Amino acid sequence: MSPHRCRAEVDHAALRHNAAAVRNAIGKEPGIIAVVKADGYGHGGPEVARTLAPFAEQFGVATLGEARAVRAVVAGKDILILSPCLPGEREEVVREGFIPVVSSTAEAKAYAHLSQGKPARIHLAIDTGMGRIGVWQDDAIKAAQAIAAIGGIEAESVSTHLPVADSDAEFTAQELAAWDKLVAQLRPILPGAKFHALNSAASLESPQHAADRVRPGLALYGISPLPVFQKLLKPVMTLKTHITLVRDVGPGRGISYGRDFITPKPMRIATLAIGYADGYPRQTSNRGAQVLIRDRRCPIVGRITMDQFMVDVTDLPRDVAAGEEVVLFGTQGDEEIAVGEVAAWAGTITWDILTRLGKRVVVEHVHS
Ligand SMILES: *Cc1c(COP(=O)(O)O)cnc(C)c1O
């Protein structure tokens, strides 16, 4: 069997470790909605859901298609669809018993019209500052009263989503204090509804606001949005490729498109079997980015191209050759490159790096 050129190894023991760490942070009571949208942040949605099922009260996905994929492996658990469904998707959502997010009484009524026999369950989103979906907080009580009066639906849960949980502690504290007050007012209007607000950052930082459930995503994959909590978590994914070629290159030679990098001296340059089409961000070009070979950090030289890029292996042993393993992020020996470093080199966030892996990357699940 030929080896995979690019491989994302997914460590399921680390997934379980992280779920246990979230449980430990929030205490015994709140339920965990394991967020497995975007194919489990690139780790494989159904496989991740299967491993996290013992820890999760519900699963959170972004789309109807993702809900179907998760349902196929964890039949008994409720699945919350966190992005608004399209009008044409609603009929299947109700028929299949997925729980769709609703941002207005009009949207709630549309689901009520589709209910047959038992009420359609919906999830009411409140906008407390995110500015994306939901009923604006000042209108929340009126909307909840209106929804309570509609026959044919049941508000299974009510939530908000925090815009700056990992970057503005003061805004978030005020937002959560106001949210707690609103929850107390909404509970009698929607008896039985579960309330939740906390993403990964807030689940770790402000678990006292967990209410009935929390909605962690990134933390389950072993990355803390807030560096102080990173020690509690284990990164789940290691992204690997191979050297395809090693060349000795003279001084004054341009490396890659644009000739941004000109060899200042004779160098050994390794070419790798990965490029931006595989999800390694092109924006890392000429930003001091590194990869791991032989447990050592090697600098990327020249621009990232679609299928390949080059690294400086001048200081590595002479026997480094084609076929050798390269780690883009994750650990190799005693060295580690965190996903966050790649994100910083690319000028983006860790969520973006994990969810952009290309179709040529083979995801390999390690269950030890
Ligand atoms: C993606 C998402 C989450 C999870 O966010 P993390 O920062 O990855 O924990 C939670 N809630 C909603 C509504 C989301 O869209």
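^ pyridoxal-5'-phosphate complex. Residues 269 and 312 are 5 Å apart (CA to CA). The chain has eleven helices and 20 strands.
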